[in-house]
Amino acid sequence: MLLPIEPAIAQANPKFEVLYRDLCNNKLNSDGTSVVDGKAQKERETLSQELHKARVESARKELIRNGLHSLSYTPDALPEELQEVVATVSAILEGQIADEDRLLLQEDLAKFQSNLKPITKALSKAHRVDAALLAGLLDLDDPPTLETLPQAVAKLKDSTSGARSTTAEIRLALAREASDLHATYRKIMEAGIRILEQTIHGSVARGTKAKADYLAVVAEGMSKKLELQHGQLMSQVYSTDVQETLHIRAASVEKETRTVKTKVREAEERLEEYRKAAGIEGMAREYAEILKETERVKAEIERLQMD
Predict the structure, then answer these.
(1) CA distance 188 to 35
(2) How far is CA 234 from the centre of its chain?
């Protein structure tokens, strides 16, 4: 099983694409194994069967060795004298006793062979306990019996093989989808960059910038025009003739103001004299005349101030 390649790489390297397709279609299976002809496949199956038999035989011997080792240390599994014999045979099978020392243990070996039946029974009982534990691990809710345990193991093996094949196919499909996703993401990024470039440096951006520059120039021109008009207006207001007229008018107003103030002061002096010389009736008449004159003077002062 090969990982998928990107379409751009395949298009850029046509020879590599041909090699890749040949490997995927003619040289490799979906699980990654090599495709072979019928004769080679038959030889491979024969070798696989012989290897399986060798593994089974090795596993059987290992079970017997482990079972004898466990029996030698399990109380009440065998009589004490048989446990010692089993422990001796277990040590021989595990290579813990040298070949030259085995001659000294012939009696124990003969005793082991003469008591094979009880030893085999105890060993079978221990294996049944182990098999029951394994069956419980296969299915906690409904464990298979010892008679159906081989079928359950074979079924589990087949389902595991199918799951592995399915997992490989899913991984391949996931890799292809990831490649497609990366390609789509690259296209989106390219489109985003292109749109961004058009937004920043495109015709719309240039037009907007030109319009902004034009409005800035127009605003600057209007500002200069307003400054010019303001200068012209101020020059007209503060011209020599206007300034001279204003000075003359200010002098005239100041002179009239002094005259009015002098009249007011004289009126107040006259009022003071009338208060001293005239009686009550005369004072009232004169006071009325003075008030009338005061009102007239105030009105004149206000008129002058308004002008």
Answers:
(1) 40
(2) 66
pLDDT band (50, 70, 90) for residue 51? very high
Q: Is 31 helix (H, G, I), strand (E, B) or coil?
A: coil
pTM of the shown model: 0.41
SS (H, E, C) 153-185: HHHHHHHHHHHHHHHHHHHHHHHHHHHHHHHHH
Q: Kindly state the average pLDDT of the residues 63-80.
A: 78
Does an H or E element contain 146, and which? none
For residues 68 and 99, give the distance between their C-alpha atoms in angstroms, rounded to a whole number.
Answer: 20
Q: Is the pLDDT of residue 281 over 60?
A: no
Q: What is the mean pLDDT of residues 181-205?
A: 81
Task: Say how far residue 143 (Cα) sits from the centre of its chain.
Answer: 46
Q: Three-class SS of residue 145? A: coil
Domain boundaries, the chain: 7-186, 240-306
- Tell the residue number behind the tokens 């019996």, with chain if given: 145
Phi, psi values for residue 34, rounded to 5° = -80, 145
Transcribe 179-220 into DSSP letters: HHHHHHHHHHHHHHHHHHHHHHHSHHHHHHHHHHHHHHHHHH
